[in-house]
What we know:
- The complex is a heterodimer of chains A (about 300) and B (about 325).
- In chain A, helix 1 runs antiparallel to helix 2 and helix 8 runs antiparallel to helix 11.
- Chain A has helices at about 1-15, 25-55, 60-65, 75-85, 85-120, 120-135, 140-150, 160-185, 190-195, 200-210, 215-230, 230-235, 245-255, 260-290.
- Chain A is about 75% helix and about 0% strand.
- Chain A is mostly helical and about 300 residues long.
- Chain B is an all-alpha fold.
- Chain B has a domain at about 90-270 and about 290-320: Orthogonal Bundle (MetI-like fold).
- Chain B has a two-stranded antiparallel sheet with strand order 1-2.
- The chains are: A mainly alpha (about 300), B mainly alpha (about 325).
- At the A-B interface, helix 1, helix 2, helix 5, helix 6 and helix 7 of A face helix 2, helix 4, helix 5, helix 6 and helix 7 of B.
- Chain B: InterPro entries: MetI-like, MetI-like_sf, UgpAE/MalFG_permease.
- Chain B: Belongs to the binding-protein-dependent transport system permease family.
Amino acid sequence: MATTLTAPGTATTTNRPATPPGRRTGGVRAAATSTLLWVYAAVAILPLLTMVLNSFRTNQELVSEPLGLPAEPSLAAYQEAWIEASFSTYFWNSIVVTVGSVALSTVVSLLAAYALARSRSRLMGALEQVFVSGLMMPVFLMIVPIFYLLDSIGMVSTRTGLVLVYAAVSIPFSVFVLGTFFRQLPGELEEAARIDGAGPLRMFWSVMLPLVRPAVATVVVFRFVPIWNDFFYPLILVRDRTRYTLPVGLTTFFGEYQTSWSTLFAGLVIATLPLVVLFLLATKQIISGLTAGMGK
Amino acid sequence: MTGPTAEETSPSAGHRRPPLTAALPTGTALVFLLPAALLFGFFVLYPMVTALTYSLYSWRGTSQESFVGLGNFVTLFTAEPYATQVPRAFAHNLLLFAGSMVVQNSVGLLLAVVLHRRRRFKRLFQVLYTMPYLVSPLVIGYLWSLLLSPLFGPVNALLKTVGLDALALPWLGNPTTALWVVVLVTAWQWVGFPLLLYGAALGGLDHSLEEAAELDGASARQRFWHITLPLLTPIIGTVSVLTFIFSMEAFPIPYALGGSTGSPAGATDVMSLLFYRTAFQSGSSNAIGTSSAIAILLFLVIFGLSIAFNKWFRRAERRLF
């Protein structure tokens, strides 16, 4: 915490040289900026590193040496979290719900975005406005009615219910990003396909879809992360422990394993692991996608 | 469903040459749109509309009783515990916003500016700074509650090691420090977000103005304050509005750090926690009516102030250019 506050302080010194940029001050300034960047890198990464390292230690080690490294790395904490604390169940539920809802929302959003991008009717323009307005809708406003809606169709505490809700709330973002991409594609491609006798569905599937693959990757990554991390919907829509996703599982787990600290750390690592894998697979997509449509 | 009639149905008769994009006939387009429209209508639009009606009725458990107009909203400001908790939670949200603006956005801007001119390790730094942002906010909240634990917490151990024993406090147990922990942990997690947005904006700027100023002898600091910063006004506006929205909706980090009651003593209570307690934990017979009123109120504040912010930044932009 304290180090976070030192960052701006270091900064003022980097901006300080009031002399015009000469060759002599250049070296000093470069060293100062390098220091700043590495210091903040430590601030950003050390807490996460501590989480991983402490998950391989035992409770006694944690108490006697809070700053130590794992002396004899142990997987006991993982075993306890995975088996006894039901993380295997939560993990599987999270995978099913996240993959299912991202797949569903991507497919329906692709069709919708294509239709909206390639139609010039006024009705479709109005419908697009309705979709995009969804970007502004806060979850608190919808959650109680959604709960009763799911209840009335018998889908509270089901993974299908969560999949449908997540897919629906993902539509505004996905339609927005995919629509932007479809609009950039030249219409001649479809005209050529049409002359060759392709119908709308074939045109969409064989001509357009391969071309928007980068946008699809962006949408998939960008819906995967928040849905995997989300906690509010399942907290309210899932009442049955065997259907908990990882974040909801974490809240009960933190109540029950209060003093089993290394197990708690292991649980946090398990909840984060798939994101690290995703990050390694799609760093570029994530970095460029974070700024997609907002950089202007 | 054959394509070639598309041009005739499209309202582009005024164009001299046929438009480049081949339009879909409206019928086909509607078929393509149907699955998304159904999902969105059922699980987003319908709940939105019903939420509004929920807030205007009194409830007995799950059954709607009678139309009370703005009665539920009046309750929020006149009946306990709401009359105390609503203003307190709202003030905490505003403080979270102010803290995020000062800490997270200025650190993000600073790092983006420093990183902008750099070639070595630029991508590595971006990745490192973005890591906390990708981890679930709930995980981040729990992680810091462990790191700050007075029993074994590495943070206090570190403070003692470097001789700052006076700072080794029970950070989350003390009402005055707990809210600042929420602010700083939120800022720590989010720094990567403004950093990347500012980075993208800096990459898109026309640097000829700065170079001209450099030739005229302006110092690095003068160039930053008088040229770069004003040029960034639009993106600063966007980031501010988004920060405002996120601060108003903050839920997982306060929940992980202070539980659903905003402990200690309500010091970390925010609007979303209040909503959650009212709707699902209060046991009040009118839980649905009151909680819906809180949700509507929160929505109106977010929506109204976001629009006001946007307008204000637009005007600031126009004054500058």
